[in-house]
Amino acid sequence: METPIYGLTVRDVTKHFKRSKKPEHKLRFFEKIKRILKPEKEIIRAVDGISLDVNIGEIYGILGANGSGKSTLIRLISTLLLPDSGTIHVFGDDVVSNSMKVRRVMNRVSVEASFFKRLSSAENLIYAARLYGISSSEAHKKAESILERLGFEAKRMDEEMEALSRGMQQKVAIARALLTTPMLLLLDEPTTGLDPKSKRDVQAFIEEIRNDRNAVIVLTTHDMVEAERLCDRVAIIDNGKFIADGTVKELLAMAPPKEKTTTTLEDVFIYLTGKELEEGDA
Amino acid sequence: MLNIRRETIISYAFIERNFNLLKRYLNWEILFFSYSIVNALTIGLIMVGRGSSQDVLYLVIGALIWGFLSIMMREVSDAITWERWEGTIEYTFMAPIYRITHLVGSCFFAILYGLLRTGLVLAIMPLFFGEHIDLGSANWFTMGVTVCVSSLSFIGIGLMAAIFPLLSPEKGQAATGILQSVLLLISGIYYDITVLPDWLQPLSHISPATYTLRSIRAAMLENASIESQAGNLLLLLVIGIVLIPFGFWIFHLAENYAKRVGRLKRSG
Q1: ipTM higher than the 0.95 cut
Q2: Tens digit of each residue's pLDDT (9 = 90 or more) over A89-107
Q3: What pTM was estimated for this model as a whole?
Q4: Which residues does chain B have within 8 Å of residue A80's beta carbon, measured at their own beta carbons?
Q5: Do the domain assignments include residue B107?
Q6: Residue in A closest to B267 by C-alpha
Q7: Domain that holds residue B164
């Protein structure tokens, strides 16, 4: 029997980082000097044996608290980090050995809309599009159409990025990712910190992409309502490990039923991790 | 396989982006340009009244060429620093482009920008120095060829210098400055390398700036022909051919290191 090719396959991926260890007590002068000369390190298990498969046309949500490993996982998939062990395949291609092929079909929106802030959104988008071999006229036309659908006035495309609000910058970041028509779209907290109107605009657009195109979408979020609304399946990540995954319905069944109110994803999250999720966690 | 047309278009993205940034910071550019003029003037004036017009020109050439070579080295490194600060480096590294395309684009911008700025300073110099400098016997063709050939070596050094901001946007640029200072010391920019201590002189012989200055001074002061500088130019070419792939290799190692330890991100 042939193994099915998923849009995204992650197998047993681990990523550890070395970080300076915080001292357990207040250090004396000579201890401080000793630490500078020979810093103590500790191993942080950012991603610890994660496996997942995402089908074409599916939105896969990842819920996790601050420092749980969501963004590290996204960076591993997007070829910005090298895994310590395990494999990641995008449409059958390995992200390490065949990174160029993977990059052609993938794009990412991160929580921070990173741009050249003194350039206009049009200049930023044309620059980004050129890196994918898209001409400036095509990029401008496409960007205008995407931004209008996101509720961004096209006439503001010539304003410098630093003059735009956070919500508007994030819409430009989404346009940057979609300009290249990616088959794998990695959305790393795309709505964190946005005002309710911008959040709704972005969420509606993500739904539109899912309905219009057969793309694979991985979405990390803190917003339980967003996860319920957009994701076909959701994984809960804690200390670099997936502690649960399934459809929203399957996850809701994991928490003990409540007497007066219906169980929410937040209840499940708190039940499984013992932690609260807050806006701004990364 | 490398599609040259596609890669050229992509390389152009970096040139266009940097010129767009230059336009947005035009006020600062005017300030830096003024500094280049003041710097060349200050150094040239040391010899006014003390030496011949040849001596004044000797120093002015040193200041101008050092300015040009510094821009070449610094711009490649600055482009990486800027991308690291803005956080856009993750998007550049995530794009389906060869690193050679990325860095060649930045290098071309550095050459164009360096030529533009140095050319403008050179055009202004006679206004200040008047009869104290004489460009009548300059061989511009030899000078132009020397600048082109030496650019290769400085691109190679620029690529190596770019690894510092890649690994640390906060301190990396200062490290690039240290590399520049070492070259300034050993390459005979404002003095003949024979005045250096004996133990330092061997380093002068491996610095491309030494041969660049030697040929440009010969061209501008003695009307030296291209044939007479063939030996120097060949050496510069060889150093360039060695340094460019070496620079790419070092950058590749630094990129892999950054991806292994997670140094590319600014936040999140």
Answers
A1: no
A2: 999 999 999 999 999 999 9
A3: 0.88
A4: 90, 93-94, 259, 264-265
A5: yes
A6: A112
A7: 4-261
